[in-house]
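ASSEMBLY PREDICTION REQUEST
Request ID: AP-0331
Submitted by: J.K., bench scientist
Number of chains: four
Total residues: 690
Priority: normal
Notes: Please return the full assembly, not individual chains.
Input sequences:
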Amino acid sequence: MTGRPHERSRTIADVAARAGVSLSTVSRVLNGNARVDEALAAKVRAAADALDYTASPLARSLVLGRTNTVAVVVPDLENPTFHGVLRGLSRAAARDGYHVLVADSVESVEEERILAVETRRRCDGIVLCAPRMPEDDLERLLTQLQPVVLVNREARSTGTPAVTADYRSGLTELLHLLRAEGHRTLLYLAGAPQSSSNLQRLAALRAFSAEHPDVAVRVEPCGVNFAEGHDAADGVLASGATGVLAFNDLVAMGLMSALGERGVRVPDDVSVTGFDDIPFARYLTPPLTTASVPVTELGEQAWHRMAELLGSRAPGHTILFRPRLEVRGSTGPAPARTVGAEAAS
Amino acid sequence: MTGRPHERSRTIADVAARAGVSLSTVSRVLNGNARVDEALAAKVRAAADALDYTASPLARSLVLGRTNTVAVVVPDLENPTFHGVLRGLSRAAARDGYHVLVADSVESVEEERILAVETRRRCDGIVLCAPRMPEDDLERLLTQLQPVVLVNREARSTGTPAVTADYRSGLTELLHLLRAEGHRTLLYLAGAPQSSSNLQRLAALRAFSAEHPDVAVRVEPCGVNFAEGHDAADGVLASGATGVLAFNDLVAMGLMSALGERGVRVPDDVSVTGFDDIPFARYLTPPLTTASVPVTELGEQAWHRMAELLGSRAPGHTILFRPRLEVRGSTGPAPARTVGAEAAS
DNA sequence: ATGAAAGCGCTAACAG
DNA sequence: CTGTTAGCGCTTTCAT
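STATUS: Completed
Returned structure:
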């Protein structure tokens, strides 16, 4: 039946010839655009599936100016967050008959620009995850990319729709949790300094500090992955903090691992929080307290925004997912000896 | 400079007009195919970048019959294995100027066929991960898909190149490890019954059993994810096995988690092995003993095979990556009381 | 309702 | 070496 290797795929002309009609009639029947005599239509359909014909997407794209494809540009396919976004996006887009192209800039901010512009030409729109790109560059880029949806950051000026997590509120909840547990010396292990989600966390920190002068909150540059979290352990211990807020779960995992090697107990000696709630966060020992970000939904909603843009419907408002606090075993009461002890800046 | 939103992107005709030459000359200069007078060439280049011109990939694809895109079809974007494959593939392909399209069949074997065929039309070749597709269907599909590289399974008849892990040898090593630790009653938690990698593991089991009649090896149907591993715990305990070989790391994690809930200690009461070595396997408590599969390399090599096919070079042989045994904390000596105790089938 | 013809943007013969 | 022309496979006026 199927499976016989056809050297070159059939064209609309083959179908037209076999059905004894013109090209336009075939096109009309197959696209259901115009009224066609039912007798002819039947012949066309018969011919089409006798020849196992499907219109060339390439040719259609060229003439229609529409590829039915969108691209997602990510800074790093290694990061579990983007897996989730990709999965959500891909499935949602597929339901609407759209395909998705992935472009991994491998953390290079300069590449990201080129890559996005280049990729844009092969599709109808871009879902852009570019947390580190400077705001000005981003603004300029957005105008070139046209239908674009931002993930995990918002644009200042443009009316570009965005789908993101509310990193500020997530970190605020974690801060309150630790304070409620009696922690008075906290340390935040920062991610990429200029990244949007890092800035949001810093804003949460500032607001919290202003509100709670009894808690000392320090910031230490760190990073975004396991290794960087691991390397931060000595700094964490030196800081004297009893509660550590890691930039994300990966950093928290690295930190807990290094802490374990040094014989420091979590949460007895120090409480650790992550961010994101990656799939394995709950299975760590102890299970990681974190702010859960629904990454798959992020991807799905990114598609919905994109679909609106592609249908030239109203852009829709930016969506913020509020992270859900997941209190697990990596946090607990502050060790007795330090409660209320410190008064340092 | 850049950033001014151009309503419609410029065409080769615009460049030709501005440079005062014909379309073909522009094409020739920009593709460097034929010798062009240097003076004209310079004018063309000047015009091209004054207009910020890039040839439409769509139009080129149509006329060249080549899209510079490949697609990867996966059964489930949720599985960490495919993340790795995708990442390796995407980066390797990008280095050669190729783009990648992802198609997630969301575990539906029937969809997979349709999806692969449909997706194929938008690109130059398919990297196919279809572990569950029946052999006969696969064979038929392969002829339609033309340039295709298989990941994690081989095709019987066709000379389709494949890139896969040697699941059989990996499981054999795990079996030997457990036997060396004194385990004489083992249980294998099987994955998808007809999947290639499950069949390979079963082959390893049979060979091992024949070679070591002193070890009782049972098989229990299970699955491929965390939840299925979790649900297998009671069956595992009922079996009396002291060593459990989970289909993969996800299953092993689920099992260990459920075992923990029941107060069963790993590895003191029962040893557990995984398969794949997903990123977090080493950070579990206890760290998971597993057979490490280099998923990123799998993706990279899949690209290299594909590149050979696209360059109509010799297909290249199928590549087998031998999993590396990672002995960690989830396995240990068999509990004394059961060593040599059982003689059941 | 149907067919002929133009054209999407580009490349590759084919002439000169 | 350069320009003219004919497509790649399809959709869509525009006539009929």
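REVIEWER COMMENTS: The mean pLDDT of chain A is 93.
SIGN-OFF: pending second reviewer
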